[in-house]
Write a structure and sequence with these properties.
With 153 residues, the protein is mainly beta. The protein has a single domain (17-152), classed as Alpha-Beta Complex (glutathione-dependent formaldehyde- activating enzyme (gfa)). The protein has helices spanning 35-41, 141-149; strands at residues 9-12, 19-22, 28-32, 46-52, 56-58, 63-68, 74-79, 86-91, 94-101, 115-117. Strands 6-7-8-9-4-3-10 form a seven-stranded mixed sheet.
């Protein structure tokens, strides 16, 4: 369950070239262990915080590179062209949501992941929260819909 914070939510890259403001609370947060996200952030998983796309305003749009996911989606992984900080991602086939990497938020301490996804790619030494749902692949659509509905209730 997502904790709350004051709006707007702000963040940016390490060098400060990219700054953003979110005017609505996140829909959900996943720790994604897919190989694409691992490579994009250079870590065990990407802590992706999903927002409604039109609720995020960038002062400078990040650069991106494109990959095809395991399930065939076209994924745009975003980064700062100056410092290389991973900024976020979006799925070409569904532009309604856009993820920001939790590490880019000015204050990510209030976040709490909703689930771990693509755990089939997790490394054997990872330690998981036993109380957080885990999915071998992506999250079930009904879970995404239920979590996203929290923001509108």
């Amino acid at each position: 369950m997502m904790m709350t914070t004051a709006l707007p939510i702000q963040g940016g890259c390490a060098c400060g070239n990219i700054r953003y403001t979110c005017t609505q609370l996140p829909l959900l947060m996943f720790q994604c262990h897919c190989r694409d996200c691992q490579r994009a952030v250079g870590g065990l998983f990407a802590a992706n915080v999903w927002f409604v796309t039109d609720k995020i305003m960038f002062d400078t749009e990040p650069k991106s590179y494109v990959v095809k996911s395991d399930i065939g989606n076209t994924i745009h992984h975003e980064f700062c062209a100056d410092c290389g900080s991973p900024i976020g991602m979006w799925i070409e086939e569904d532009r309604t949501g856009r993820a920001l990497r939790a590490s880019t938020l000015d204050d990510p301490a209030w976040l709490k992941p909703d689930a771990d996804i693509f755990v089939k790619n997790a490394y054997p030494w990872e330690v998981f929260d036993p109380n957080r749902p885990k999915y071998q692949n992506g999250p079930p659509e009904e879970l995404v819909a239920r979590l996203a509905a929290r923001i509108f209730t």
